[in-house]
Structures are given as C-alpha cells and as structure tokens.
Amino acid sequence: MDFKKIGVLTSGGDAPGMNAVIRAVVRAASKAGVKTVGFMEGYQGLMDGNYVDLTTGDVSNVISKGGTMLYSARATDFKTPEGMEKALKTIKDNDIDGIIAIGGDGTFRGATDLSAHGVHTIGLTGTIDNDITATDYAVGFDTAMNAVLDCIDRLRDTCESHARCIVVEVMGRDAGYIALQTGIATGAIGIVINEVPFDEEAMMQRIIRSIGHGRRSFVVVVSEGVKDELGKPYGERLTLRIEERTGVETRFNRLAHIIRGGSPTLRDRLSASMMGEAAVKLLLDGKSDLVVCERDSSIVTYDIKFALTLDKMYKNKLKPGDLSGFSSAEIREMEKLSEMRRQEFRDMYNAAITLM
Ligand code: F6P
Question: Can you give the pLDDT at residue 75?
C-alpha cells in the first residue's frame, strides 16, 4: 500500500512524553514522504473531523513539553456504531491511510475496532500507570514516578522536622507500579498495593521499632486503587490507624493529578522517540492492529487483541469465550507473561520489605 497521509491521536489520560511520540511520528513520516495530521482530543476529533496538519516545524521543541499538544479525552461515543461511522467517514473523506493511537487499554480497544473496519491502525503505550501487561514500559511512567519522588522528598523534610508519618496516595488506577517503585525509592516504611497482600500489623511493628531506634519520620505509599472493607480509599483510614496504633502524628496526602504533568524525563523522551519511530515503520510496512511495546529494552509488537486479552488474564477478568480464537501457543504465552508480571511484583515487594 502506498501511504500518503497518516493520522495520530492521543486518547485517555494524558502522559508526559506523548508530545515526544507525536514529534517522532511526524518526523519519521515526513522522512518517508508521508504527511501527518493530528486529531484533536483523541477519538472525539476523529469522529468530528477535527484535526490539524502537522509539519516537522509544528513539532519542534515539543519533545520537552508535558501534556499533549493534541489534547486528550475519554470519548465514550466512539464505542457506539454511530461514533464508528463518523470516524470512518472522517478517515475516508480526508484520505487518511492509517492511524497511530497513543494511550492505554481504552485507546487500544478503539484502535482494534478501527482495524476491524479495515483501517490500518497501530497502538502505542502511553500511560503513567504502566498497566499494560504486554509492555515492560509505557511512556509517562518514569516522569510520573519522578514527580512522586520530588513530592515525597519534600514531605519527608517536613515530617522529619515534626516527627510525623505521612501516608501518600499515588495514582495508578488499579495497578501498583507507581506505588511500589516510588515506595522503594523513597525508603517507605510501608507500601500498599493490590498486587501483593499488605500486612498492616507488621508495618505498625516496624514503625514502633524504628521509633525505639530514634527515627523521626515515616513515609507510607498507598496506591489509589486499594480500597478498605467499606470500599473507601485505604490510605485515609490507615492514616488514623497509624496514629492510634503507634502514637506518631500522621497526615494523609493525595498527590492525584500533580504527578501527571511536567517535562518528560530522558527515559520517557527516549521510549517515546523509539516507539513513535517504530509505529510509523510498522504502519508504512502495511502492518495493522498491533501495539508497540518494550520488552527487555527492545521494541516488540503484539496483536492488540492479544494484548487486551492478556491484560484481562493478568487482572483475573477473563470472561467465558475470551480465549476462543487464540491458539494454545498464544494462550500459553499469555499465561507466561501474566505469571512473569506477578513474579516481578512479588520479587520487588519482597526486596522492598527486606529494605524497610
Ligand atoms: O490512567 C491514568 C490516570 O491518571 C489514573 O492513574 C487515574 O486513576 C485516572 O487516570 C484519573 O482519571 P481522570 O484524569 O479522568 O480523573
């Protein structure tokens, strides 16, 4: 197929490094003599025909900018047949030969639907949550974690002055990647994530013992997806229990969206650039319905349906029939990857406990 014009969009929660992906897409396409248009606000722009032409000049200096210059939205209408019809019309009327969609699992569901309607589509992982099981790394993760580090280091200073404990809730949706890794990197005394059972009493004992050794400040990192028996965010009531149980004055801090902004780190700029370039190559090679991932520092691709079903398997959300259509080798591969991710969590969590 002779590609003349491709589209790029960012969808779902924004992530630092999305601009670096857009830049890489525009530059790689331009080198191949292909024009790029950018759809505004993700699939909403695709449905509304709301797009801008993107030249290499338009993407100069965006590599260091957070957010997404194409804006983002969670366009629920796109899931309807009418929404899809509108998107297909935009693609046809504007001679768009393929789409690169940057985001998380919701974005990939949209991409695979487009692909099923004959549109060449490549997905690219961009989410601070890093919760795409098929990839080791999603663009935005490192910057978000560094923002958490900066905040917790500051919180640690004031806790040290006042002999306090701070319970910090971090984003990640249901995934504990951000909480676990930042917990280790800030010397937290407790890390609460959904992936590994939390022994609250053991943490209380660690705090009590540490007070005995003269320690004045404590950090506990909780992933936002962890809920208590009442379905309420775990961190808020844990804060009260820590104070009651240990006598240490304890405060709660929800970092929320503050960690989703800011200039992308080197890691994110690099991954964004490599993945963006790879996505264009795949599209121009006539590939479709693939998601660009990182495995052991190399770029790899998976069929989008494979990646989405793998996610469900890993999250124990498989429904009857979800695995039909996959070969037994593919199912084995999904089981292997799911177990590998679970093991990664257990290993890292065990190391974290040893170091607390
Ligand atoms: O997926 C990214 C993320 O920031 C999650 O960590 C968080 O749970 C969610 O998006 C917040 O969504 P919104 O920006 O719509 O409030």
Answer: 87
Separation between Cα atoms, residue 193 and residue 234, nearest integer Å: 10
Q: Are 7 and 46 in contact (CB under 8 A)?
A: yes
Q: Which of 11, 145, 171, 258 to mutate to test the pocket of ligand 1 (most atoms within 8 A of CB)?
A: 171
pLDDT in tens, 108-132: 999 999 999 999 999 999 999 999 9
Burial of 231 (0-12, 13-18, 19+ CB in 10 A): exposed
Rounded to whole angstroms, the Cα distance separating 345 from 216 reads 29
- The token duo for 123 is 């997905």
Q: Whose CA is nearest to atom 14 of ligand 1?
A: 13
What whole-number distance in Å separates Cα of residue 29 and Cα of residue 265?
24
* pTM strictly above 0.90: yes
Q: What separation in Å is there between the alpha carbon of 139 and the centre of ligand 1?
A: 15
Residue 325: CB atoms within 10 A of its CB come to 9
